[in-house]
Amino acid sequence: MRISRRLCLAAMLAGVLASGAAPAQPAPQTAVPVLAYHRFGATVADSMTIRTSTFESQLRYLSTHGYTVIPLRQLVDYLAGKQAALPPRAVVITVDDGHRSVWDEMRPLVLRYRVPVTLFIYPSAISNAPYALTWQQLQALQASGWFDIQSHTLWHPNFKQERRRLTPAAYRQLLRQQLLGSRQRLQQMLGGEVALLAWPYGIVDDELMQAAADAGYSAAFTLAAHAASRADAPLALPRYLISDAYGERAYARLLEQAQPSAASAH
Ligand SMILES: [Zn+2]
């Protein structure tokens, strides 16, 4: 089943299926918008905060316009050819950084609207930084069944700056520590399988993708304003950065642009 990671990466980067489980007929090229959130609040404190009321209006829009929020893992399986099709109008919700407003503001809406969410966490902040979630909260979120907890590296370094600052050997060591260390810590604290990664600041290049493959990640996400499809590199999949500017009309426009043929897709 498992083939060499280097070969696997090469195959994935070439945009072809990495295993012999390819379906006889090519699956339709479904593209799915993956949305990236950060913080929630009553007011827009900064560009990374969305008002909780704006987020709720987005959830309401999805549920009243035939969209299905799917777990990120389901999309990753589809992109890897392990799943033949997705529900029409599929959308994915992710949240980066593990801010405590995920617990205070977002969680009640996730439970009310019953949408699966993936959190990308950097463990150094958890139960440590005053703005961050605690391990206990993460355990409770995971136990609810609606939250999947995945990796955002160990402490959210800027890899572009670090590469300039460090020797090549020290930089490679940092990559391994950040990518493998985060996976191991999350698996140790939460018990689930961690194979998905969000790149800090969306920074990604060939060396980073190789390091992620070596550390055991099967998919990784950056920030780019288009929907994810099998045409994208599995270790640099796009996500839309969502801010409070996405009121209902802008949000509807984004979804329509992301999936122009959504109504006929299957
Ligand atoms: Zn981040």
UniProtKB/TrEMBL annotation:
Alphabetized SUPFAM superfamilies for the sequence: Glycoside hydrolase/deacetylase
Origin: domain of life: Bacteria
Organism name: Duganella vulcania
Domain NodB homology residues, every copy: 89-266
Any one GO molecular-function label of the UniProt entry: hydrolase activity, acting on carbon-nitrogen (but not peptide) bonds
GO terms for biological process, alphabetical: carbohydrate metabolic process
InterPro entries according to UniProt: Glyco_hydro/deAcase_b/a-brl, NODB_dom, Polysacch_Deacetylase, TAT_signal
Keywords assigned by UniProt, alphabetized: Signal
Signal sequence extent: 1-24
Keyword Signal: yes
UniProt protein name: Polysaccharide deacetylase family protein
Entry keyword annotation includes Calcium: no
CDD domains reported for this sequence: CE4_NodB_like_5s_6s
